[in-house]
Amino acid sequence: MVGLVVLMLGAWSALSEGRRFYDTMLPIVSEVTWLPEPSGHPTHATDSFVGSPSIVKLNATHFLASHDRFFHEEPGTAYIYISPDLVKWVPLANVTPMYWAQLFVHQGHAYIQGVSDDTSRGDIVISRMAPDGTWTKPSVLQAGSSTTGYHCAPTPVVQQDGALYRALEQGSDNTPGNLAVVVLVGNASCSDLTVPSCWQLTTPLVWNPAWIGQSTVSGTPWEEAGAIVTKNGSIAVMVRLDGPVEACQTLEECNRAALLSLDTGSLELHFADIVAFPSSCNKFAVKLLSDQGHDGQYFALTNPVTLVPVTSYGIGTCGQRNVVKLTSSPDLIHWHDCGIVLWDDTGLAVNDSLAYTGLQYIDYIYEDTNLYAAVRAGYRGSVTYHDANRLLVANITDIWARCNLTASGRRP
Fold first, then answer.
1. d(CA 106, CA 230)
2. Where does the signal peptide begin and end (predicted)?
């Protein structure tokens, strides 16, 4: 595969390529792609924006990154790029329909898995990369309907004890707040994961407002769940909170997430806790990382609320995405603030920074004590913080030192 892909890199070199991003104080390695600033008065009917970044190490010599475009380009195409060094990126393929998708590698083969559209009624779909760099037509793993379908974000596909796990949501007209958390469970022994029989779904778990001391469901309660392999080998799921924190007035109220456990025998999800977590209404990915010099520790790159009430700055509670923090935990319950790693370096006033800068929806890979992060960025020319104009790759160096972690995973 590597030889063929290298040949294809040469053939595509004349196409739109990623580039180094020099004019910044941020640790940005490269810009994978960017969309020109819309002229005149941009509208969601005529303009599209960068969404759903994903990144994966394909093999010893190459990396893949992907994104989709939202609003005008719906129902969705995944744009996939390839790089030998995380700096120079060239287009590899477009996969349609594929939305809110996650790249992953299994048994040496690259896959991308997402849903067919943005309605929360779409199908769960998957595509596989062929040796020549092309991708298969997406296979439907679970079909949606006019009343029930699926929703997700680029969140981890993890493997444990012969199974693959990918968290997502089931949308239903009969579900309060619309979205229930489910986990897609794959048979890791399957040689071709595009075969639908390789996969099954857990029982959906519906939000209960009593978990957070509320009596009614407010808006969409949660979404963009992520599966995690825990230190004891079990499967946990952490979920972004939306509606339950929309009226938050303190940092403690705003920065929280839901923690679930999965019974891998019965395929049933169970509520575990609402944890203090430095993220509010924003997608995140928690991963258990370790290396030869450090015991396992959970890490995440998050968008915390640092200004309260955020609504006093003219945006919604879910609107602060101009700061990214690195955070770590020994147990998924107690999270340590390891500091700001990405920020708005444009010099904008606070209100303008909140309105126009978003460093968000981060996916990442772990390489040599560093995190290489794919960032959906509303940055320098974006029409709003949400409507991103760039896909950036940032290098968050020396995460163990940043979090003051010793070889045993403890803090001095």
1. 20
2. 1-18
Among residues 142, 153, 165, the alpha carbon closest in space to that of 68 is found at 153
- Using CB atoms within 10 Å of the CB of residue 132, give its burial: 0 to 12 exposed, 13 to 18 middle, 19+ buried: exposed
Residue 409 in contact with residue 297, Cβ under 8 Å? yes
CA-closest candidate to residue 282, choices 304, 308, 313: 304
pTM above 0.85?
Answer: yes
Give 307: exposed, middle or buried? Use CB within 10 Å, 0-12, 13-18, 19+: middle
| Contact (Cβ atoms closer than 8 angstroms) between residue 363 and residue 330 | no
Q: How is residue 60 annotated by DSSP?
A: S
Which two tokens mark 239?
A: 């979920």
- DSSP element (H, E) containing 236: strand 235-241
* DSSP 8-state secondary structure symbol assigned to residue 196: G
Q: Which residue has the tokens 């599966």?
A: 227
pLDDT tens for residues 369-385? 999 999 999 999 999 99
Structure tokens at 271: 């509520």
User: From edge to edge, which strands make up the β-sheet containing 99-106?
Assistant: 99-106, 109-115, 124-128, 139-142
Tens digit of each residue's pLDDT (9 = 90 or more) over 263-290: 999 999 999 999 999 998 999 999 999 9
Sign of the alpha-carbon dihedral angle for 226, 227, 232, 234: positive
Backbone angles phi, psi at 2, to 5 degrees: -60, -45
> Which residue blocks in 19-117 are alpha helix, DSSP H?
none
